[in-house]
Specification:
single chain; alpha/beta; Rossmann fold; 5-stranded parallel beta sheet; two-stranded antiparallel ribbon; 7 helices; binds zinc ion
Length: 218
């Protein structure tokens, strides 16, 4: 199914064609919630969509993206907690691995052990720093695509990853929410506050940037 989105000066089209049984990695944020809702529209039957939430300790310790938050956003109580590699996420343990590696391992685990055909993520583009240098800080998240930057991920995993928002900016995703009546009130973008928004961190600024861009008419 095709979805058009964005302000008139940057309209983009995405095509979502899920296979029979899929999974989605959800946080408490806007991107994965919008993606979940679009998948629900396309597939009709939400029971064919497994929802995963990767649990961490240490640096990436339990925060706003808890399974409880995902339940609140989706009205589902069958959120699958992925904690197979939780021991690796504590800095002071001998098994420590960087968060990105934990994510890679977790993705392979979800695809292999939960009998799904595809695994969806809400990854999208950071604001273009050539025009918005204020986003060029060390805080900015790593957003990438699989084959280029994760050479160690097995091909059986990378070929089943799906990121339909990969070529979208935040304002496209906010527009998809508007057009499809997706309620974003309970989403949490801020990485500083557990509830509400500080208005100053990278993620709060990106959210505000997205809303402002969408308002620009020409
Ligand atoms: Zn914030």
């Amino acid at each position: 199914m095709r979805f058009e989105c964005g302000p008139e000066w940057d309209i983009r089209v995405i095509d979502i064609k899920p296979k029979n049984k899929i999974g989605i990695m959800m946080t408490g944020g806007i991107d994965s919630l919008v993606l979940y809702n679009l998948l629900k529209i396309v597939m009709g039957d939400p029971s064919k969509i497994l929802i995963f939430n990767v649990i961490a300790l240490g640096d990436h310790g339990e925060g706003y993206d808890s399974p409880e938050r995902v339940s609140l956003l989706t009205d589902r109580y069958d959120i699958i907690k992925i904690d197979k590699y939780i021991k690796h996420t504590e800095n002071d343990k001998p098994y420590y691995k960087p968060w990105t590696e934990v994510l890679d391992l977790s993705q392979t685990h979800m695809l292999e052990d939960f009998d799904i055909d595809e695994l969806y993520i809400g990854m999208n583009m950071n604001p273009p720093t050539e025009f918005f240098p204020e986003f060029d800080t060390s805080e900015r998240p790593r957003r990438f695509w699989y084959t280029q930057e994760t050479p160690n991920l097995p091909e059986s995993t990378s070929t089943k990853m799906r990121a339909p928002f990969l070529n979208l900016y935040k304002y496209h995703i906010l527009d998809l929410a508007n057009k499809n009546n997706i309620d974003l009130r309970h989403t949490q973008s801020c990485q500083e506050y557990m509830h509400g928004h500080c208005g100053e961190c990278w993620w709060c600024l990106e959210r505000a940037w997205g809303y402002n861009q969408l308002k620009i008419t020409k």
